[in-house]
Amino acid sequence: MTAYADLKTRFARIAALGEASGMLHWDAAAMMPPGGAAARGEQLATLAGLGHDLLTAPEVAGQLGEAEATGASDIANLALMRRAHLRATALPTALVEAMTRANAACETVWREARAASDFARVQPALIEVVRLQREAAAALSDATGLAPFDALMDGFQPGILAADVEPVFAAYEVFLADALPRAEAIQAARPAPIPPQGPFAIAAQRALCRSLAARAGLDFDHARLDESTHPFCGGTPTDVRITTRYREDDFAQSLLGVLHETGHALYERGLPAHLARQPVGEAAGMATHESQSLIVEMQACRSDSFLRFLGPLLHETFGGDSAPYAPENLARLWRRVSRGFIRVDADELTYPAHVILRFRLERALIAGDLAVADLPGAWNEAIHAMLGITPPDDARGCLQDIHWYDGAFGYFPSYTLGAMAAAQLMRAARNASPTLDRSLAQGDMAPLIGWLRGNIHSQGSRFGFQDLLRNATGKPLDPADYTAHLTERYLTA
Amino acid sequence: MTAYADLKTRFARIAALGEASGMLHWDAAAMMPPGGAAARGEQLATLAGLGHDLLTAPEVAGQLGEAEATGASDIANLALMRRAHLRATALPTALVEAMTRANAACETVWREARAASDFARVQPALIEVVRLQREAAAALSDATGLAPFDALMDGFQPGILAADVEPVFAAYEVFLADALPRAEAIQAARPAPIPPQGPFAIAAQRALCRSLAARAGLDFDHARLDESTHPFCGGTPTDVRITTRYREDDFAQSLLGVLHETGHALYERGLPAHLARQPVGEAAGMATHESQSLIVEMQACRSDSFLRFLGPLLHETFGGDSAPYAPENLARLWRRVSRGFIRVDADELTYPAHVILRFRLERALIAGDLAVADLPGAWNEAIHAMLGITPPDDARGCLQDIHWYDGAFGYFPSYTLGAMAAAQLMRAARNASPTLDRSLAQGDMAPLIGWLRGNIHSQGSRFGFQDLLRNATGKPLDPADYTAHLTERYLTA
């Protein structure tokens, strides 16, 4: 066997271990009785350790040096193997283990601290997490030649660095300062939305979510929809597991959540099957993944076109007064702009503000320019500067998200890059398929999903974020498509 | 670290891989959409391969030679490590892979062959399976010093060989020849059982099964009850997964099935937690495992005592006429003796006949004394000799069980050894706790389960099958306790 063939076998085993872990994570969230948690931790740690051992085994460096690949796909695959090996070997085992322990310990304390809105309680644990992240960033920086924070960002969305994000975010801040009051004024001049009256039977919600996910193209011979406290998309490309949670008094949260996760799931389902379990066959980073969930949830399903289809279906499903289900009312209800404290509840217009402030704070924490102790104050200043509001407590401020407390620094930009990419892809899809909105108005997502399958899903990781966009839309990330989308949706009286 | 400490770490990783596989097997049976099957195969093969690599790594032989253990538990643990290593290294990797492929291929064809009752269709695949099993038996024989078929049996119930089983089975055959017609005559003289009239709502059956499993001691903080085509007990000791299947026209199948699986589950739950993921902390073989399911299902739950509790509960659950739920009627219904073709439907009296004939045939196949082509004829002769019936087709004959077609030779004796051990343990438990039947009549299984926990569950694999029985009952396996149980239950007018 050639060195490259050996490496392909090795990476397929690593990927199979990752798939097994993915399933066990899903099970832990959706199925596992509480008493299984400790053993599950052992199982996952063992699988992660064995995967790391396979990736960093002594013979791999030589094989990677020796390996030769021909053809674009294999050349990209080999480059991704080298990248994975470089990042995995950059961190000493002792540091990886210390991070695993510190992150797990901090996350546990964070749950209590958030519940009590008591930042001081988690401060020592977060100081340790940040200290280790800075060590890791330095080690990754040495290995990759990237700046330390860039080296962390690169772990979530390969190739996207702080210098790419900074000007985009600065421009958005300017746009928002003007757009937000205008959107609010326009909104205030319109009739107030009428909320549908519950209760909404869970069984009906479940059937609705399932049928809309199927309508969007999710094939339940290769997917499941279950329940968990925190909705997510997990599993593997041929066996995707999405979750949601249901509330009797509100169907929108589960419905729109399922459509969001369906976007993620369709991406996984559309990855190139002939490249399964090879790095080049995987999804192309977190921002790309988020673009696929948001194009389904935000761009397609909250569009005027789709709401014309969805409104009558909802009324038929839940009965009662028809007024709340009028498409215009659903649009006012589900596209409501508000200056809120909580990122995950934010609208499309203000969401980037939440991301921008986190990006700046996490960067300052890793650079050592911001002490953990000063985080609550810096947070509150930042959100006040952008949205003019001050969190009444840290639970609604710097304690709200799990990311940092779980050791994820450099992830947040992916949300907004994904939202922007979704707008850009939607524009290109509309250009490619002039009847796309007519299809959406009939509840037919096939033209959109078909276009995404060809241009994004089936590409795997053959291209990075910018080249994927360039190939699909003719240009790299262009935030103007996002602001144009927002202008049309929120700033047009 | 000492060699023994290194080995403990290694075996804990191997066990964690096994736990992960167990969960993925459960998922495949109870949750997985059909499209996930191929990827699941890759995941399981990778985990099995990595586990095998860990067990057979070059340094292990040296560590096992060097390792020293003190204290009964560690001495037993080290011996079990040596045994596992010996068996794993005995088989060349190429043979293991060939068996895996041949078994999987044969099992697939067997499903069609059974459905069509067409032995010829699966004959070539079974010939290959048997050929490889004979190779494996020879290799294991060389390594262990056991006879070839004994080396296969030893893989399912360590320490129990054909010479242990043969006289037990021969004696049972003599007992049965006399007992069966007598039991039939006694049964014929009694009123015919009145079957409860359905339909029995699945939701009510589900709740009943759950509550009876909980009553038997299963803690659902550490367990789940789900559905699958073939009921089983899987998962891990702190997260046991049992399954059943429900039919609207019959509640007994799921109810008694769940009680059977609960017996398995309680054994796993009661294994010594401080020895988790070490060989000595595992269950002590398949016959021991079966004794724990059968003591709950057959000995306890079909006893006159427990039926006095269960009858009224069933009537309360399902309503309707009370006569079918009278304890005496349930006894006549659920302890009905009949000469049937199907092992899994057999009663306690005739079940061993099904096992005895399989044991003799599989032994002859492995010895080369019986050709695969002659299996259907040999089967039909054997069952006619013991039960006086002739299968109308091979689906009800030699095609009925998956075991051989999946490469499991030497497993069948465990069923009957387990049934016999269950009777012996029940007698000892009654002696130890004279109020045990009074408790059962109140639906209280705690005295029985508590006794099993102390004498069997908590012992892990510290002792083999015979020593476990000796410690718990004062003697090794004594089939007289089983025939005494059968005599009391079936031969007393």
From TrEMBL, chains A, B:
Reaction catalyzed: Release of a C-terminal amino acid with broad specificity, except for -Pro
Protein EC: 3.4.17.19
Keyword terms: Carboxypeptidase, Hydrolase, Metal-binding, Metalloprotease, Protease, Zinc
Alphabetized CDD domains for the sequence: M32_Taq (cd06460)
EC main group: hydrolase
GO function terms (MF aspect): metal ion binding; metallocarboxypeptidase activity
Active site: E261
Binding-site residues for Zn(2+), renumbered to this chain: H260, H264, E290
Family: Belongs to the peptidase M32 family.
PANTHER family assigned: CARBOXYPEPTIDASE 1, METAL-DEPENDENT CARBOXYPEPTIDASE
Protein name (Swiss-Prot/TrEMBL): Metal-dependent carboxypeptidase
Organism listed in the record: Plastoroseomonas arctica
